[in-house]
């Protein structure tokens, strides 16, 4: 019988908190390496064409410069990944692409020298305009990008209410506070160590090994602490290979840190979208047809994008007739990457605003409209839901928020002095997936346990929750667990992404703990493996978000004094860090609704507001009272902990709730994000 206190679920402080506040937790760039030199990438100033020459004379003449590499003198790589094939050819595929790298004894000299590298280009005209009218739109390579059920035309013909609208979302940048950074150290030309800021060391190690023609075990990646990522550090980006390439060519350890401005072109961004949504319904609000067509952008060198923006539309509401499509415009733009709730964040904005418009068209309260369209099974897969708490989230949220059920829609109906007051609601879902992971646990003298797994903590609290999971599974106290994560020397595990980290790593840890205890041996290794229930149940986290906004009747200033989010995420394993994740998602939803946009200057083919002064994110003063909470939800199918990931569900639907509240306050329906003052005030 265990005497250990129950630690799973408890709102404990982060186990790495004191390391972080004292600066003892080393981030990638902070690792100390002897004999290190500093690299700065030189970026293309054209969006399409070729590098004709690089004159490094002035750069090399600076005291302290140790080398300048470009495609004619850089070592050869073997990668098929065009984003990672840095300095391998003259071709320029986007503005900001690395065309040379300058290495010097100090970062300041390297930066100065990079500015002196004289690059001559053969420029071609570029094409950077996203439009749904382009005749060269392509279907994504993934054949799950389109879906069709029933007969959409028949469903439209049956309807007595129809909402057919186009919603657009801009490019947005992940902007983690820790800039992307890498240190590369070669030994004997065939062993490489990287200190790197990423969301999964094994993924980075595999890509870099591939680029240099090495086996995976010849590359070690060390990444114990990461200062934010949000998707931009999930995939390997060019600067990682560039750093390793420079270190190899010069025979010296090399450090590279991207500037904030560089991150806007070489670390990815959320693709902009143009989304047509059609909701057809009977008088009572029951859906008879749903269509969602998404147009988004990719670069010319990579297809990767958030190509499932219509995913929530496929499973949110009951409807016999449904069609979703995705089409890509291949532009001379920097490659997009994924960004928190990739696809769902934009898709839920369009769908949940359209549901609000349908509620108004039908004269039905938007909470009630959603409940009326609650499906019995997952409309997408036809499988039963492993658990589905959406209706309870809507009801509980309405109660906590103080939602006033509609007596017919009355936009611009509430006023408090100069402020027009409105409220809005949106629903959300995000897949509760899980991937491969392996964990090893060893019993140490004195009743302690060493738990090893190449998990990744990108600021989310993985150090904390995995310690809790291990302590619970081993029935010991938190102090008896010595956790090691963030290193390819540890057992391989999937990256932190898709809200699957805790589910995957935690499952491996629980399996290893059970094996160790069952065998009575001092060490056990176990896998998470595939979820055996994945073919039997559709697994999603759900949520409902409610927002109050106040809009200044004269200036259009928009404030969000309060939001309530109620989530159904299975068992919450670490109450404090989980709440922080949900709050972060909701805050980001406010920013997505009102502030964030990366603006392209079509003359140059690049983002022009590439800094945090002009790329606006929500700061403390922008965020009012956030109330993030969850319902009790027992789900025996998702994983042994019964937990659904909380990393992304908080942003899904959040922007729509705010935008719907803006409509309620002002009577102005804004369908292109962000909602800025001039859009609310209108012409004149
Ligand atoms: Mo998250 S966008 O899956 O890293």
Q: What's the shape? A: globular
Q: Any idea how many domains?
A: 3
Main sheet? 7 strands, mixed
CATH homologous superfamily annotation of the largest domain: Aldehyde oxidase/xanthine dehydrogenase, molybdopterin binding domain
Strand order of the largest sheet: 3-5-1-12-9-10-11
Hetero groups bound?
dioxothiomolybdenum(VI) ion
Query: Could you tell me the radius of gyration in angstroms?
Result: 26 Å
Low-confidence segments, given as residue ranges, are: none
Strand tally is 26
Treating each run of at least 4 consecutive H or I residues as one helix, how many helices? Answer: 16
CATH topology heading of the largest domain: Aldehyde Oxidoreductase, domain 4
**Kindly state the mean pLDDT as a whole number?**
96
CATH architecture of the largest domain: 2-Layer Sandwich
Class of the largest domain in CATH? Alpha Beta
Give a structural overview.
The protein has 16 helices and 26 strands. Helix 9 runs parallel beside helix 15 (654-666) and helix 12 packs parallel to helix 13 (501-519). A 7-stranded mixed sheet has the order 3-5-1-12-9-10-11, with helices on both faces. It has a 5-stranded mixed sheet with strand order 7-15-14-13-8, sandwiched between helices. The chain is globular, with a radius of gyration of 26 Å. It folds into 3 domains: 17-27 and 434-527, 2-Layer Sandwich (Aldehyde Oxidoreductase, domain 4), CATH 3.30.365.10; 31-125 and 177-229 and 233-266, Aldehyde Oxidoreductase, domain 4; 143-171 and 270-432 and 536-681, Aldehyde oxidase/xanthine dehydrogenase, molybdopterin binding domain (Aldehyde Oxidoreductase, domain 4), CATH 3.30.365. Strand 19, helix 12 and strand 20 (481-484) form a beta-alpha-beta unit. The protein starts with 16 loop residues before the first helix and ends with a helix. It is α+β, with helices and mostly antiparallel strands and 684 residues long. The chain binds dioxothiomolybdenum(VI) ion.
């Amino acid at each position: 019988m265990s005497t250990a206190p129950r630690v799973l679920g408890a709102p404990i402080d982060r186990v790495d908190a004191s390391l972080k506040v004292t600066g003892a937790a080393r981030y990638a760039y902070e690792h100390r390496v002897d004999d290190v030199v500093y690299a700065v990438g030189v970026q293309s100033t054209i969006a399409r064409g070729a590098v004709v020459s690089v004159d490094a004379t002035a750069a090399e003449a600076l005291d302290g410069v140790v080398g300048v590499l470009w495609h004619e003198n850089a070592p050869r790589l073997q990668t098929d990944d065009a984003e990672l094939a840095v300095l391998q050819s003259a071709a320029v595929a986007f503005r900001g692409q690395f065309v040379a790298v300058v290495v010097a004894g100090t970062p300041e000299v390297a930066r100065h020298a990079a500015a002196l590298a004289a690059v001559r280009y053969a420029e071609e005209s570029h094409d950077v305009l996203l439009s749904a009218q382009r005749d060269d739109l392509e279907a994504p390579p993934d054949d799950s990008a389109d879906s069709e059920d029933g007969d959409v035309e028949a469903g439209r013909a049956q309807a007595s209410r129809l909402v057919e609208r186009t919603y657009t979302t801009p490019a947005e940048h992940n902007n983690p506070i820790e800039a992307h950074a890498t240190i590369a150290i070669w030994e004997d030309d065939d062993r490489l160590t990287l200190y790197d800021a990423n969301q999964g060391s094994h993924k980075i190690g595999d890509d870099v090994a591939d680029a240099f023609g090495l086996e995976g075990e010849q590359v070690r990646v060390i990444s114990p602490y990461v200062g934010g990522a949000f998707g931009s550090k999930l995939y390997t980006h060019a600067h990682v290979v560039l750093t390793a390439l420079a270190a190899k060519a010069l025979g010296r350890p090399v450090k590279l840190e991207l500037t904030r401005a560089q991150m806007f072109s070489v670390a990815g961004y959320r693709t902009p979208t143009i989304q047509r949504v059609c909701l057809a319904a009977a008088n009572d609000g029951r859906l008879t047809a749903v269509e969602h067509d998404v147009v988004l952008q990719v670069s010319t060198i990579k297809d990767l994008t958030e190509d499932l923006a219509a995913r929530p539309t496929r499973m949110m509401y009951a409807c016999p007739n449904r069609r979703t499509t995705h089409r890509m415009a291949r532009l001379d733009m920097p490659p997009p990457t994924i960004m928190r709730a990739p696809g769902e964040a934009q898709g839920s904005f369009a769908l949940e605003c359209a549901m609000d418009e349908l509620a108004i068209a039908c004269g039905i309260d938007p909470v009630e409209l959603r409940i009326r369209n609650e499906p019995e099974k997952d409309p997408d897969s036809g499988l039963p839901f492993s658990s589905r708490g959406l209706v309870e989230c809507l009801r509980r949220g309405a109660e906590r928020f103080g939602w006033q059920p509609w007596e017919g829609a009355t936009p611009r109906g509430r006023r408090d002095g100069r402020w027009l007051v409105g409220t809005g609601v949106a629903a959300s879902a995000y897949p509760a997936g899980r991937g491969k992971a392996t964990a090893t646990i060893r019993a140490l003298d004195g009743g302690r346990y060493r738990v090893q797994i190449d998990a990744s903590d990108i600021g989310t609290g993985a150090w904390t929750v995995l310690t809790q999971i291990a302590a619970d599974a081993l029935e010991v106290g938190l102090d008896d667990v010595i956790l090691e994560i963030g290193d390819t020397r540890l057992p391989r595990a999937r990256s932190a992404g898709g809200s699957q980290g805790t589910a995957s790593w935690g499952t491996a840890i629980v399996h290893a703990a059970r094996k160790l205890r069952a065998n009575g041996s001092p060490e056990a290794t176990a896998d998470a493996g595939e979820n055996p229930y994945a073919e039997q149940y559709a697994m999603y986290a759900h949520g409902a978000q409610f927002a109050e906004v106040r809009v200044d009747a004269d200036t259009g200033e928009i404030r969000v004094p309060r939001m309530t989010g109620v989530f159904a995420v299975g068992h919450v394993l670490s109450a404090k860090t989980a709440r922080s994740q949900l709050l972060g998602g909701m805050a980001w939803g406010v920013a997505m609704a009102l502030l964030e946009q990366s603006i392209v200057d079509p003359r140059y083919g690049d983002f022009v507001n590439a800094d945090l002064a002009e790329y606006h994110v929500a700061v403390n003063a922008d965020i009012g009272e956030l109330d993030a909470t969850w319902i009790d939800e027992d789900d025996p199918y998702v994983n042994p902990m019964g937990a659904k990931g909380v990393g992304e569900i908080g942003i899904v639907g959040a922007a729509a709730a705010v935008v719907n509240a803006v409509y309620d306050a002002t009577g102005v329906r804004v369908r292109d994000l962000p909602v800025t003052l001039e859009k609310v005030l209108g012409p004149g």
